[in-house]
Amino acid sequence: MNTMDSVDSSAEATSAAESDATSLLEVAGLRTQFPTSRGTVIAVDDVNLTVERGEIVGLVGESGSGKSVFAQSIMGIVDHPGEIVGGDIRLDGESLLDKSDAALEALRGGRLSMIFQDPMNSLNPTLTVGEQIAETVRLHQDVGESVSLPAELKRKLLGATKNSEAWRRAIEMLEAVEIPEAESRAGDYPHEFSGGMRQRAMIAMALSCEPDLLIADEPTTALDVTVQAQILDELRDLKDEFDTSILIITHDLAVVSEVCDRVAVMYAGEIVEQADARELFDNPRHPYTQGLIASTPRLDAPNDRLTPIEGNVPDLIDIPYACHFAPRCPEAERECFEIAPDFRPVGEDGHEAACLRRGPTEEQL
Amino acid sequence: MSGTKQTSDGPPAEAAGGEVVLEASGVKKHFAQADGLLDRLLGENASVKAVDGVDLTVHEGETVAVVGESGCGKSTLGRTLLQHYDATAGSVRYRGTELTDLSDREMRAHRRNVQMVFQDPLASLNPRQTVGQILKAPMEVHGIGDSDAERTEIASDLLERVGLKANQLERYPKQFSGGQQQRIGIARALTLEPDLIVADEPVSALDVSVQAQILNLLQELQDELNLSLIFITHDLSVVRYLADRVAVMYLGELVETAPTDDLFDNPQHPYTESLLSAVPRIDPTARTDRILLEGSVPSPLHPPSGCRFHTRCPKVVPPADWAGSEEAFRRAFRYRTRLVAGEVDPAAARERLRAEGEPTDDNRVVDHLIEGVLGETRAHLPADAVTAIDEATTAAVAGNDERAARLVEAAFPSPCAGETPETVTVDDAHTAACHRIE
User: Signal peptide position in this chain (chain B) (predicted)?
Assistant: First the structure.
C-alpha cells in the first residue's frame, strides 16, 4: 500500500482550477508511534487517507484502532512521547509536518478545527460561551497580535464588549447551530448548558473561524440519542452552509452511514477498507468490516442472532503477523500471517480493501 | 419501516404466561435535595423525583428492557427494585414477598435471588482480589458449598460458563480486557443462582464486536438458567435485539410499555416516536423523518404539571374550543412554555438590537421577541391569541414575568399541561400514558 491514488485523472484536473487538482487533505504513509517501557506502540501504521472539499469522510474503528491518534496527528497534537515518524500530511498540497509550531498554531482554530467527545474539557469554565466564541472570532480575524497573549488576559485588556462585531458574530454562530434564545444563552457559562448545547457551542466555536476542515472525534458519543440526531443533522447542514469538509472519527457504523459520503475502516493501526458510504454498507468486503456489521444490533433490520468477532483487539506492540486481523479472521489462512495485504479494488467507485482473500471481481479486471 | 420479514420471537407470549417473578407498583424514589441548614430553616424541602410512580412486572425467563435517556431515572429504578435504595413509596414484590417491608437482615437472604450487573465492570470488581476470591466471597456469605475446594470448583465452572478459562481464577481483574471483565461481572452475579438479574447498561462501555459477545452470552445464560432479566439501557438497537418487552421512561415515569415488536412497529407515545426516529440507521431506506424535540429535559426537582412531556411534545393537544389550526396552537404553546420557564430574555434581545443598530424601545423589543419564536405563525393565530401574546410579551419586557406567565397560561390551556394522563391499554400488554390515546 504505497500509492497515492487519490489525485483525480489528469484530464479532469487540467480543466479545473489549480487548487481543485489536489485534495483538501492528503495523508500518505502516515506512521505515528509511542515508545513505552514494553516496546513501541505503532498506533498509526502506514495510513493513507484523503478528504476532498465539501466531503464528509468517516473513519470508523473500535477502541485501540488508532483512529483518535490519527486525528491528533493531523492536528499536530499527538501526546508526548508519541511522534510522527513517517509519511506526510498535506493540507491543500502543503505539508503540515514542515511547519513551525507557530504556523501550526495559527492553522488550528483557523483552517483546521477539531471538536472532541467531551465538550466540557474543551470549553473554558470561567468564560461565558459567547465570550469564548467571540474570542475565537477575534483571534481568527486578527491572527498577528493574538497568539502571544493568553485569551483571558487579552479579553481583560481588550474587553469582549457586547456591542462588538465579534460578539454579534458569536450570537449568529450560536443561532447557526440552533441554540434556542442564542442572544440570551450567549451570556451563560458552559456549566449552565446541557451536554448537547455544549457540543453545539463547540461546533459553533470550531466553525466560527470558517475552517476548511473540521475533525470531529466521537462528536456524539457522550450524547443522548435525540440530541445526537440533532447534532448529526447540524453537521450535515453546516457542511452545506459553510462548505466545510468534515472528518468524523467514530466507532458507530450507523452514525457513519447517516452522515458520511465516504468511509474508511480502521483496525489495529491500519485502514483495511474504504469506499463510498452506500457501497461500503451494501457490499462490505473486508472480513473485519463484515464482522463489525454482523455484530452490530440493528434497529432497521432486526437481527436473529448477532455474530460477534471472536477474540480481542491486539496489543499494538510488535504485532507479529502481517495482516493485523488474521488471528481473529474466520477466513485467515497461513499466508495471511506472513504476507502483508496490499489495497486492491473490490467494488464500485474506488472501493478498496486490504485482504489477501479478496480480489477484484471479474468485471473489474 | 421496511416491511421485511417479521420474525416472530416466541418469548413474549410465552413469557407473559409464565409466573410473575417481580411485580412493582407505584414505586417512587425521591432524593432530598436541600439538606443545607439554610434550606431547612426556610422550609425548602424540594426533592428530586428520580422515580415517580412506576408499575413494572417481570415474568419468568423474560427480558424486560427499561429504556430512556440520561437522567430519566432508569438506573435509580433498577437499584430501587433491588432494594439498593429504599423506595420512597410503592410496592416491590418478589414472588409474592413484599421486599420493601423487609429488614436488612431479612433482605440479605433474598439478595441471592436478585443480582445486579453494572456498566463498568472494573469499578464493580475489587482490584485487590483475584477472580477466584471475587466469585467465592458471595458463596461464603450465603453458605453455598461445604468447603473452599467445593466453592473453587463452582467458581471454575462459572468461569467456563461465561467463556473464560478455569485456570484464570488466580488472576486479578485488571489483567483482563473490558469484555472479559464484564464476563467476570456476570459470573459473579450468577454465583448465587439468582432467578432475576438487573443489568444496568452492561454493554455500553464495550466495543461493538465485544458487545455482541456479551449480549449473546446473556441470552444463552438466560435460556439455560431460565433467568429473568431487567435490562436498563439507552440503546434502542440493543433493546430490539434482546428484549421481550420494553418500558420507555421519561422524567421518572413510564410513558409506554409494550412487547418489543409492537413498540418498534407501532409506537403510541409521542416521546417513544421521537426516540425511535432519532436512532441512526445503517440502511438509508429504513430511515424515517426525524421528530426533533425542542428544549431539554426539565429538572426532576420540579417536573412539569400534567403530562411531564408536554413542555417538549410535538403533539400537544389544543383545547376543545381552539379556533385555529393544531399547528398554530402548538407553536403558540411552545411560546407559552418558554415564557413560563423564564427562557424569554428581553435584556438580551435589547442588546442584540442595539448591536445591530436598530431602535431599542420596548415596542421594538416586544416585536423582536415574538418574531423570534412565532415567525410566520403569528398570521395564522386567532385574533384573541395574538392579543394575549402581545400583552404577555409586553408584560415580560416590563419585567412582570408572573403576569406574562398567567396571560399565556390562560390563553393557551391544554389538557396535556392540566391533567395527568391515565395509562391506557392500547392492545394486549401495550400501554401508554398520553392524552391523545383514547
Answer: none
